[in-house]
Amino acid sequence: MAIRPDPDDLDPGDPGFIADPFPALARLREGAGVRRSAGLGGWVASRHADCKALLKDPRFSADRMTPFFEHMGPDKRAGLATLESTVRRWAVFVDPPDHTRLRGLMNRAFNPRAIEALAQRVARRVDDLIAGFRDRRRVDFIREFAYPLPATVIADLLGVPIADVELLKRWSDELGAFVLTARATPDKYARAEAAAKEMRDYFGALIEARRGAPGEDAASWLIAASDREGRLSSEELVATCVLLLFAGHETTTHLLGNGLYALMRHPAEMARLRARKDEPAFVATAVEEMLRWDGPSLAQVRIAAEDVDWNGARIAKGERVFLMLAAAGRDPAVFADPDRFDPGRDPNPHLAFGYGLHFCVGAPLARLEARVAFPKLLAAFADIAPVPGAVPAWSDNLVVRGLHELEVALAPV
Fold first, then answer.
1. What is the model's pLDDT at position 3?
2. Residues 238, 206 contacting (CB under 8 angstroms)
C-alpha cells in the first residue's frame, strides 16, 4: 500500500512555497512542536519557543558542514577540498570553543560603536545610489539599490577596492548557492569550489598586502589582533574574511528588498512610515517589523550532537533539525495579531538574526543600513509601487528568503 504524503509537510521546491511560504508554515506550526519532514529530510521546529530553545541548546550543533563532507565519496570530496577547508572554518558552522575564539575577533570589527561610526558613510552611499536613478520611473530595486548598498559598505569596511565588488559578488553567489542550499543551481558544488579557490587567493593576497601596509579597515584589525594574540591561523583568517564579505551583504540585501516589498503590499503602512520618517525611534521599530514579517532568514539548521528527547520527539544523533525562523516570527503565542504588518509593533522579539551564541554578527550593520535607507527613499520619491504585471523573483534557497529582482515604479516628489 502506498504511503500517502503528509499534506502539511513542506516542499521547499514548490513554486507556491517559494513565492509565499507562510500559509504552509502556519499549518506546520499548528501541528506538533517538532516533527519529522520527509520533504526536508529531517526534523522541523516552527514554534517560537522551540526555535529559541534549540538555538541555545548545546546538544544541537551548528556544524552541518562536517557531516556533509564526511558522507561524501572520497573522489568527490577531494575535488571540493578548498570549499570544505573554507566553509568548515566559518564561525557560523563552528561550535565552542573554536566558535568563541573566532567570534571574539569578529566582534571587534563589528561592535555596535564601530558600526554606528559608519552612519555618515552609509548615508552618502545611499544618496549616491538614489541620485543614480532619481530621474527614472522604473528600476530593479534589488540590482540597483538593495545589492550595491550593502556590498559596497562591507567591501569598504573590509578594505576591499570598490572596483572589485562585482567580481567578489559573482564568487559570493557561487558560494551562496552551496551554503544556502539552493535547489535549482546546476553544478553548484563545482562552481562553489572554483569560487572558494579564487576568493582564497584574493583574500590571501589582500591579507599579505595589509600586513605590509595596515589600514583603517576590518581586515587590518583582524590581522593585527590575530598576529598579536595568535588566535587565528592563516587559513582561518582568510576564511573569516570570505565569511564577512559573504554574510555582510546577503542578509542586508534581503532585508532591504523584502522590507520594501512589504511596504508596497501595505500602502497605508508605507504612508505611516513616510509621515514618521524623521523619527529615528519609529524607523528603528519599523525595521524590526520588516525583519519579523518577512525577514531574510527562512530557516537555520542544527545537527543533533547526541540522541535527544525533545518534548516527545526522539531525535537521533546526527539528524538535522530545521528551525523555521520565519514561522516563529508569526507565532500567535508570542505576537499579537501576527499576520498583520505593523511598523509600530513593540516589543518585537523576532528571531530573524538567530539567537544565542550564533546571533548574526552583522545584525547591527544590517539594521543601520535599513534605518538609513528607508527614510531617504521615502523622502526622495512620492510613491514607490510595484510595476504592473511584474512578478517578483524569489530565490529558491532553503536558509535565506529574498528576491533576485524587484521591478518598482517611482514617482518623483
1. 35
2. no
